[in-house]
Design a protein that fits this description.
Elements (H helix, E strand, L loop, with lengths): L3 E8 L6 E8 L3 E6 L5 E11 L4 H6 L8 E8 L6 E8 L3 E6 L4 E11 L3
Antiparallel strand pairs: 1-2, 2-3, 3-4, 4-8, 5-6, 6-7, 7-8
The structure holds zinc ion (2 copies).
One zinc ion binds next to loops.
């Protein structure tokens, strides 16, 4: 399956510069890499379910150590097959990806950070 690539411009937690953070989402894992310093955070798929509430609405207002990132991307859903917005929430502990059409949700848990070279 294709990966989904997104960009989010923010202050990097590692180098402190405001730079594009490149987000790559695969079916089983995800990465967030700073375009400036190369620091990369690795996430691993932990849970998949059809979400009838809206987990992203619930989780996005919780305060963590870092700001939560709220993104969306129009793609073909792995579950329902519709070309529809996916809501994406990245927190300091994990990443939620939820299809706005069918509620299919994946949760990736933070695994490790590689600060680059
Ligand atoms: Zn950086
Ligand atoms: Zn869907």
């Amino acid at each position: 399956m294709d990966k989904w690539t997104l960009k989010y411009k923010t202050k990097c937690y590692n180098c402190g510069e405001v730079a594009d953070q490149i987000i790559e989402i695969y079916p089983n894992q995800a990465f967030v890499k700073c375009s400036n310093c190369g620091a990369t955070r690795y996430y691993i798929l932990k849970k998949v379910w059809v979400d009838s509430d809206n987990i992203i609405e619930i989780e996005k207002n919780k305060k963590g150590k870092y700001d939560n990132w709220v993104l969306e991307k129009d793609v073909e859903c792995y579950n329902c097959g519709k070309y529809a917005p996916q809501d994406i929430l990245i927190t300091d502990s994990g990443m939620y990806v939820r299809c706005r059409n069918c509620g299919f949700t994946r949760y990736y848990t933070f695994h490790m950070m590689d600060v680059g070279h």
